[in-house]
Amino acid sequence: MKPALINAALNTLYYSGAHNVLAPMTRGRGVIFMLHHATQGASRRADPTRFAPNRGLHVTPEFLDEAVGRIREKGFDIVSIDAAIERLKLEDEGRPFAALTFDDGYRDNLEIAYPTLKAIDCPFTVYVATAYPDGAAELWWQALEAVIAKEDSVEVIMDGARRRLECASPRAKSAAFDQLYPWLRAIDEDEQRRFVRNLAAKYDVSLPALREAQALTWDEVHALARDPLVTIGAHTVNHFAVAKLPPDQARREMADGKAKLEKELGRTIEHFAYPYGDENSAGPRDFEIAQSLGFKSAVTTRKGVLFDAHREHLHALPRVALNGDYQAQRYVDLYLTGAPFALFNRFKQVNVG
């Protein structure tokens, strides 16, 4: 769904008050929030005339601060991911809880999110794909945006056919991105990376420069890990959609990322996030691998809050995105009731098939 349609649906739910009526049935025990970037330039309002397809990954530090305040005001304890799992296991429900998590391993997690959350004593988790601090990550979705942003047209070969995509206007750029991005998500991971590598070289976009400007270094990962407020979790090595990989490769991606973090930080890494994390990127086979590798928990991007039934599915936990297109208090209020996700999931509490 387009952000405008989601926005309209969420606003209808909020202003109707239906979320409060549903809350006793839909709130659950707690919620794990997912973020990626906290950046100063992440505008509160999406500008439809501006081409910025990845803006949903960015929130402002001001919104992050306000969201934490609102979560606490609504009676939720914000706890570490480890404490969240322990609370979920308890029969006594107690107070509702929330955990904040950041995916991938971006420098702004240290430079902006960390001081913002440190100042308000808020714990959080950073799931690090080890190719980021190793200097080998390819931020292909950002390279795709950068190519389309600078060109009036791009020529590509998709499924063996040469195509020319017009990119002269913001609308055309969005249409080109919307055509290429889902196709790239669907194809083989190695083919995806080759395609974007060749596209970036053809149109003079530097993948190493994108990485160097944004990815945490190992020294910076260490700096985050020194604070007890911060939990470092695993996120594979290369940020591949593990469900698309053969079983042995999927296991290596998950195990090697865990092992590298443990070697660097000198501690056991107990929590994991599946890259992309949707139904096409992580499935039952991958949940079993995560469990067999000794992770206490593994989180997806399947939408939802936590219920008692999730005690039996600790390696397929849902999350709620604090999305840069929806940086307003009313959305946080909605999310905490669980109502949008109950409707989205047709009132199924657990969706791991």
State the gist of this model.
The protein has helices at about 5-15, 20-25, 60-75, 80-90, 105-120, 130-135, 140-150, 170-185, 190-200, 205-215, 220-225, 245-265, 285-290, 330-335, 340-345, and strands at about 30-35, 35-40, 60, 75-80, 95-105, 125-130, 155-160, 160-165, 230-235, 270-275, 295-305, 315-320. With about 350 residues, the chain is an alpha/beta fold.
3D structure, described in words:
With 353 residues, this protein is of the alpha/beta class. It has two domains: 3-136 and 229-344, Glycoside hydrolase/deacetylase (TIM Barrel, Alpha-Beta Barrel); 140-208, no CATH class. Helices cover 46% and strands 16% of the residues. The protein contains 15 helices and twelve strands. Strands 1, 4, 5, 6, 9, 10, 11 and 12 form an eight-stranded parallel sheet that branches. α5 (107-118) links the parallel β5 (97-104) and β6. α3 crosses α14 (329-337), α7 (140-150) runs antiparallel to α8 and α12 packs parallel to α13. The mean pLDDT is 95.
Q: For the record, what CATH class of the largest domain applies?
A: Alpha Beta
- SSE series: HHEEEHEHEHEHHEEHHHHEHEHEEHH
| Count of all domains | 2
What's the pLDDT, averaged over the residues?
95
Radius of gyration: 20 Å
End-to-end CA span: 21 Å
Beta content comes to 15-25%
**Contiguous uncertain segments of 5+ residues:** none
Largest pleated sheet: 8 strands, parallel
Per DSSP E runs of 2 or more residues, the count of β-strands stands at 12
* Dominant shape: globular
